[in-house]
Write a structure and sequence with these properties.
Largest interface: A-B, 20 and 19 residues
Radius of gyration of chain B: 26 Å
CATH architecture of chain A: 3-Layer(aba) Sandwich
CATH architecture of the largest domain in chain B: Orthogonal Bundle
CATH class of chain A: Alpha Beta
Helix content of chain A: 25-40%
Strand content of chain A: 15-25%
Distance between the termini of chain A: 51 Å
Number of strands of chain B: 0
Oligomer: heterodimer
Number of domains of chain B: 2
CATH class of the largest domain in chain B: Mainly Alpha
Number of strands of chain A: 7
Radius of gyration of chain A: 20 Å
Order of helices and strands of chain B: HHHHHHH
CATH superfamily of the largest domain in chain B: Cytochrome C biogenesis protein
Strand content of chain B: under 5%
């Protein structure tokens, strides 16, 4: 009896450690953002549709917005575009785009062809602002509250399901600032 | 931990000799003017993770995001930032996941403690096994079965 106790104990310990590992296994390599609950990074970048204008984070304070990182080189962005158009027509929360490491002309024709769901699109040619947001792959979408705090982050294509389950309840129901 | 760096350096040199150094410099041609800065640059880009490929270091990755992050490391080194400043800057954006060498913190205590704990458990098991064997030898005076039968 006693000689099985130690191996059994070790086995249980190992099982617990592995169970914790499996429970916390990031689904498809999604990495938790340290930005959640923190102020959204500041930026002032040229606008894609009107290069003379700037898109500035300071102007976005005071209301909810979605911050969507995309590029014409990104296949999944094409997949999620339909959802973005739906979100846009729902009119609940404006979408600010970040055109990441992209060609401006191609990006403009992308929007002309597929439709433009964005209130404004900031051009990040060097990728410097994307780094501030901790972006490691497009598409990525952040929800920012009126106080300018990042409340939610979605990695990968936005789906109607994510919209109704994760984003809509946060914008409409709960009090702002639930980090 | 100077000796550890020395051993790591020797191992790296051995690997380079075996695999051919050409491939390494093909990814990242950056050369800083000050050799001491260059050494820190090489060390840092080897201990920061490429977030897009995840199992590669910044130094080894050909993807654009890795190039952008290497550019940040270079610019911040040239601006006089310390290694810890740069590590903190990176993990503020990408989380501790970007650090291949985890930080010493209470949250990471289990991580750093695990090897010692496992070694201790192993030693305990060893000690018990040896002690039990010792007890067997002292009391086991029976002749071996095979000897008894063949006679």
């Amino acid at each position: 009896m006693n000689r099985f106790l130690l191996p059994l104990g070790l086995f249980v310990l190992l099982a617990v450690v592995l169970a914790i590992g499996i429970r916390h296994a990031p689904e498809k390599g999604v990495i938790a953002s340290p930005l959640l609950g923190r102020p959204a990074p500041q930026f002032a970048l040229p606008s894609l549709t009107d290069p003379a204008q700037q898109v500035r984070s300071a102007d976005l304070k005071g209301h909810w917005y979605l911050f969507n990182v995309w590029g014409t080189w990104c296949g999944e962005c094409r997949q999620e575009h339909e959802t973005l158009l739906q979100v846009h027509s729902a009119g609940v929360v404006p979408i600010i785009g970040l055109d990441w490491r992209d060609d401006d002309t191609q990006a403009r024709s992308w929007l002309a062809q597929l439709g433009n769901p964005y209130q404004s699109v900031a051009v990040d040619r060097s990728g410097r602002i994307a780094i501030d947001w901790g972006v490691y792959g497009a598409p990525e979408t952040f929800l920012v509250n009126p106080q300018g705090i990042v409340v939610y982050k979605h990695v990968g294509a936005l789906t109607p399901d994510t919209w109704t389950r994760e984003i809509l309840p946060r914008v409409s129901g709960l009090p702002a600032g639930t980090s | 931990m100077r000796w550890r760096d020395a051993v790591a350096g020797l191992l790296l040199a051995a690997c380079l000799l075996l695999t051919g150094a050409g491939a390494v410099w093909a990814v990242d041609p950056t050369e800083l003017p000050d050799p001491r800065l260059q050494a820190r640059y090489v060390a840092l880009t080897h201990e920061l993770r490429c977030m897009q490929c995840q199992n590669e270091a910044l130094a080894d990755s050909p993807v654009e995001l890795a190039a952008d992050l290497r550019r940040e490391v270079r610019d911040q080194l040239l601006a006089g930032k310390s290694d810890d400043d740069i590590r903190a800057w990176m993990s503020a954006r990408y989380g501790d996941f970007i650090l291949f060498r985890p930080r010493y913190s209470l949250r990471n205590a289990w991580l750093w403690g695990a090897p010692a704990a496992l070694l201790l458990i192993g030693a305990l098991v060893c000690w018990r096994v040896v002690r039990n064997r010792g007890a067997l030898l002292a009391t086991d005076n029976e002749p071996l079965e095979e000897d008894g039968q063949s006679g």
